Amino acid sequence: MTATTDPVARNEWIACGWLGQIQPGASHDTMILGQPIRVTRTGQDSYRVTEIGEDGSEGRELPVQTRFTCIFTTLGEPTRPLPEIAEFDEPDRTVVGCGNVGVNTSPYRLVENFLDMAHFSFIHVDTLGATDKTEVLAYRTEHRKDVDEIWAVDCTFFQPAASKAVKGGQMTRYLYRVMSPFSVMLYKNISEDSDRNDAICVFIQPLTETRCLAYMPMAIVDNENTAADIADFQQSIFLQDRVILENQRPALLPLDPTYELPTRADASSIAFRRWLKAMDIRFGIYEKQAA
């Protein structure tokens, strides 16, 4: 596959590795948007990213940022900055990178799965959902135009084990935030302090239109469990999702509202697809073939 020419996709910041993945002085070859790249750790906390040509030689050097335990780069000229997520800067939180998980689907299917509360009771039984409590209560979506993000607010769902730190079932409050076509997060209230939320992110590295790596950094209020325990819990949840994601057809995301009929529980997905359509992104989008 050749690199996409879609300027909307090329102008986004995209995760391409996690901090500590590469030893100082070493390199890791990977891909974003169909473009082979090389990520080199040039020092203890510094990285260089370059395009790789067909002969394996390094070409154009790309911009780099390191935040939220991840390495980010871009093929174009970003029109939006990396998001501000204040929870990652709070010193008493446990910040966990969780590595990445490969999924054979489009990046937008990953975003929609993350937004979808309806699957909790069927895919994440006895953790994020229970088979006898399946209703998705009404919630609201917002397009926050000042930052050009999609938010889902006033979300609540019963969860038998909302996180590694929670003992017993509870109605969990959620805020969902789509920060770019390739990044989404949620704020989840699970601690005894009602003013503090766990922050859980998914930053997606689209290798191609239908192959992705998903990075899952979290900033958690948890003084009991180790970072490894928290990462294991999150990885187990995501691996349950992978089976469903890789069986969705088409793998590319249709933006035609008549192709996949939504329900009331899909309000966040509807808002997300309208947002993608308005920005005219073409990478990873399913185009219905004429009869």
Automatic annotation (TrEMBL):
Matching entries from Pfam families are given as: VanA_C (PF19112)
SUPFAM superfamilies xrefs: Bet v1-like
- Assigned keywords, A-Z: Oxidoreductase
Occurrences of domain Vanillate O-demethylase oxygenase-like C-terminal catalytic (ranges): 104-279
Keyword Thylakoid assigned to the entry: answer is no
Q: Which GO terms describe its molecular function?
A: oxidoreductase activity
Q: Which InterPro entries match?
A: Cholesterol_7-desaturase, VanA_C_cat
Coiled-coil residue spans: none
**Which protein is depicted?**
Vanillate O-demethylase oxygenase-like C-terminal catalytic domain-containing protein
Q: What species was this sequence derived from?
A: Paracoccus alcaliphilus
Organism placement in taxonomy: Bacteria, Pseudomonadati, Pseudomonadota, Alphaproteobacteria, Rhodobacterales
